[in-house]
Amino acid sequence: MISEKQFEKELQLIIENAIREDVGTGDYSSLACIPIDAAGKAKLLVKEDGIIAGVAFAKKVFAYVDADLQVETFIEDGNFVKKGDVVFHVSGSSQSILKAERVVLNSMQRMSAIATKTNQYVQLLKGTQAKILDTRKTTPGFRACEKWAVKIGGGENHRFALYDMVMLKDNHNDFAGGITLAIAKTKAYLEANKLDLKIIVEARNLAEIEEILESEGVFRILIDNFNFEDTKKAVALIGDKCLTESSGNINESTIRAYAECGVNYISSGALTHSVYNMDLSLKAI
Q: What domain of life (predicted)?
């Protein structure tokens, strides 16, 4: 995974780009009708039940827009909220609050939806050893926040991007001339370039799992689009030789059964690509 310093840099880039995109040369609606020295206060109002996420990120946005804005927090990230709850108050320059409003709301609505869905999956996995993972199926330019939201919801992060873990999927294996060659070439490349990266290899069937196990140095096997019976066989074949991960069309109705097959991880793109934003609003008080 990427370092904390890298992660913070990603967040800063998100904020800078979001404000650039939304404000541009100026918030003329506010500049036109609100005095520059006007002070105000607003509340973050919850309009839908779920897990709140993005409070800490909102504080970063407010600080970027205006370091003098003050945020009084009543509910922290990761807590369950219900309709009518007030998460925080923000006070200071009225123009600054309005300038930050849409970026804060868009971010928190999306992050809260992801945290809520992740937490639903976490609850479904209780009592099993399996942990839920996100994927790279994220909104372009907003990945750091979406992966942060998964963590807030109780899930775990898969690799952040292409550069912090090797994942040999079916196309890699086919283009490389087969699984064994793909693994051998990868290990040689990592050694030659002094890269310390974990290797995950995707398997499409039990024969491919047997082939993967003939090579050393595989961190985790991705058991992709297997049915329950074959997943159990795959877990038995792999044993403690490496970690296991199930993926492929796993949803709320099937995730528990896959977990009970004994896998270590279950990855789901739905955590980030199939959520509806939680309804939140920022209201003047």
A: Bacteria
Say what the pLDDT of residue 244 is.
Answer: 98
Task: Name the token pair of 102.
Answer: 């849409």
Task: Determine whether 19 is exposed, middle or buried from the number of CB atoms within 10 Å of its CB (0-12, 13-18, 19+).
Answer: middle
- What confidence score (pLDDT) does residue 261 get? 97
**d(C-alpha 242, C-alpha 220), whole Å:** 5
Which residues are catalytically annotated?
102, 137, 169, 202, 224
Q: In sequence order, which ranges of 24-72 are alpha helices (DSSP H)?
A: 28-33, 55-65
Measured CA to CA, the distance from residue 67 to residue 91 in angstroms comes to: 11
The 10 Å CB-count burial string (b at 16+, else e) for 29-40 is: ebeeebeeeeeb
On the 0-12 / 13-18 / 19+ scale of CB atoms within 10 A, 25 is exposed
Find the helix packing angle between 94-124 and 4-23, rounded to 10°: 130
Stretches where the chain sits below pLDDT 50 are none
Q: Which amino acid is located at 218 in the chain?
A: V
- State the distance between the two ends of the chain, measured CA to CA, in whole angstroms: 42
pLDDT in tens, 157-179: 999 999 999 999 999 999 999 99
Q: Which of these, 53, 65, 67, 160, lies nearest to 114 by C-alpha position?
A: 53
Amino acid at site 181: L
Other residues' Cβ atoms within 10 Å of the Cβ of residue 81: 21
> Which of 94, 132, 68, 148 lies closest to 267 in space, CA to CA?
132
Edge to edge, the sheet with strand 166-168 lists: 131-133, 265-267, 243-247, 220-224, 199-203, 166-168
Indicate the length of the chain as a whole number. 285
Name residues whose C-beta falls within 8 Å of residue 72's C-beta, 6 or more positions apart in sequence: 88, 89, 90, 91
